[in-house]
Design goal:
Elements: H1 2-32, H2 39-49, H3 54-76, H4 85-123, H5 126-132, H6 137-175, H7 180-190, H8 193-219, H9 224-257
Amino acid sequence: MKYRGILLPKIIDALEQLGQFWLFVVEMFKQMVRRPFRWYLVAEQLEKIGVYSVPIILLSSLTIGMIFSLQLGSFLSMFRAEMLVGAAVAKTLSRELAPVVTALMLIARNGSAMTAEIGTMRATEQIDAMETMSVNPIQYLTVPRVIASILAFPVLTAIANIVGVLGSYFISVLVRKVDKAGFLDQMYSYVDPVDIISGFIKAAVMGLLVSTICCFYGYYAKGGSRGVGDAATKAVVVSSVGILVADYIMADIMLKVLFD
């Protein structure tokens, strides 16, 4: 009875929040197709999410490509197969690493900012003021961020692919002295367009997932400044776990549909 009294309220709160989230998602999709279409807000969010995030994506993807090539090159050298490093890095980046790392970096940089910004507006009653002026807060605050994320995540993933491969080339060819022609030939032979496209699809879905979760926690933040901080922490944790789970599900589906 004691444990039931502790767990039951938490289970009820979790189910209530889950239902609230799905109602939020349904309303968000409804507002996406309703006028007015505020494209200037989408462009503003594209600049914040996309352009301002390029440096951190460049640094993280370059580092990952270099580290992965260093470790993999050391392993493949035992089998005299160092030329396969470029193909392995490019294929892994395009299918998995680039979209996941890009999403995690953008959660840290933009996801928490989305939650804090919208949560602060909730705490200072700006969202209530919008509703008083007949402006739908979900359409004005959430929809531009979601659309911008869906567009920006695949573009940043493409940048991560290119920079990661350049990092792999630097370590393999210039540092470990792998044959340049063999490195490039193996990469072109084993990496298919469907590998890159699958990564773009994952990135777009992750952009939708991250922006929706972060906006949801900000929109329903309560408890003043402390509540905004708690909402930002929950948004980062939930969206990080969510993209990993979504990545596994999408990888399983794509292996059966695209790569068979």
